[in-house]
Amino acid sequence: MLQDDLAFRGIKVLDMAQGVAGPHCGLLLAQHGADVVKLEPLGGDWGRALGKRYGDLSAFGAVYNRGKRSIAVDLKAEDGLAVAKKLAAEADVILESFRPGVMARFGLDYATVAETNPTVIYLSVSGYGQEGPNSKQPVTDSVMQAFSGLMSVNKDDRGVPQRIGVIAIDIFTGLYGFQAVAPALYRRSRTGKGAHLDVSLMQSALAYLSAKMIERHLEGAEPTLLGAPLGTYKTADGFLNMNARRDPHFAALMKMIGRPELIEDAKFKTADARVANMTELDAIVRPAIESRTTAEWLADFQQADILAGRVNDFPDIIADEHVKAVEAVHWLNHDGIGQIPMPLIPGAPVPSGRLAEAPHLGADTRTILEELGYGAEKIDDMIANGAALAV
After folding, report:
1. Cα(65)–Cα(360) distance, rounded to whole angstroms?
2. What 3-state DSSP class applies to 171?
3. What does the buried/exposed string (b/e) look like for 173-186 if buried means 16 or more CB atoms within 10 Å of the residue's CB?
4. What are phi and psi of 121, to 5 degrees?
5. Which residue numbers are catalytic?
6. How far apart are CA 351 and CA 3, in angstroms?
7. DSSP 8-class letter at 315
8. Which has the closest alpha carbon to 71: 354, 362, 357, 384?
9. What pLDDT digit, counting tens, does each position of 355-391 carry?
10. What is the pLDDT of residues 29-61, one digit of tens each?
């Protein structure tokens, strides 16, 4: 796929979102050809400092702002706000992630922008949505993992609900945002109509958990297990995840661990029996798996067609022969950070040039202001007066 033949080429996006969820949507629009202008406060999008900071970027900032152009202005300054309004008036898509009501105070809310830009596709990303008793409450990914029920289906061996160690809800909220914007743009191309899209972390999390919610309603607090033996097992040199719940796989595993008599044992002969007696079965399987290395088990499992995989750390997956063969991870020399691994986005082109890097704060301020018709003297004055920042 050529970068000059991408689906959203010619689409102008004003990305005022911060963090990960909204910027992720902006990233996807940029990688599919849109001109995404990231409007940031003078101190930068707080996602630039999410985790360890490398200059004016973090790992999250570097990923979710690739392919964008950065302009830094102060919306509390008259000149800065005027710039934002000019960009909003020309945008095909606007992304924002502030609490409901904040954009209205600046005259940048959907209703106000639509008065002069009626065909705009306006995406509001928030914690709980634009309406309802919780709409004004602040929320983080970890809070939403708790609120949404995600932690209830991720318990440790003590039964304590656990947070997933990645900001998963923010990330897939960005995906849901993109899948809302893309059809809205297609609808606009047919009807000429704009739209205000309300995508929240809460609704995204609930959509993601739909099957588990239904399962809980139908089956109670202890839903039917998928089968046994199934799960993560310690080996002599690491961990693997194995699924040997089907009869032929169970039989093959029992032969491998030297317990063929259990194949016909009434407690383990059927899938339902194995689930009912899972604790006893686990007490047999786990010590056996721990007696050999991961590689040894995986070689045998492959021969028996048992589903299994090594539990990898990121250096392991980067070095994996399959990952390297299909070039699933590319190495980029990112300005200000150095060489970093960057997995490809499914369905998007291999990023290069502008699409491969996230912009530094205010890197494109002068260029964007010039495109809006500002002269050099006015731009210098705005920078000197603190209405804008340029590097």
Report:
1. 10
2. helix
3. bbbbbbebbbebbe
4. -100, 115
5. 170
6. 8
7. H
8. 362
9. 999 999 999 999 999 999 999 999 999 999 999 999 9
10. 999 999 999 999 999 999 999 999 999 999 999
**CA-wise closest residue to 17 among 124, 143, 147, 119:** 124
Q: Token pair of 174, please?
A: 């960005």
First to last CA, the chain: 33
- 349 preceded by cis ω (within 30°)? no
Whole-angstrom distance, CA of residue 358 vs CA of residue 67: 6
pTM given for the model: 0.93
The token pair at 83 is 């710039």
User: In the structure encoding, which two tokens stand for residue 317, read together?
Assistant: 């997956």
Residue 260 DSSP code: G
Q: Which tokens in the block code for residue 34?
A: 């849109």
Q: Which amino acid is at 288?
A: A
Instruction: Write down the residue that tokens 């985790």 correspond to.
Output: 51
CA 387 from centroid of its chain's CA atoms: 32
Separation of alpha carbons 288 and 179, rounded Å: 46
Q: Which residue has the tokens 């999390």?
A: 205
| Burial class for 140, CB neighbours closer than 10 Å (0-12, 13-18, 19+) | middle
Distance CA 10, CA 12 (A): 6
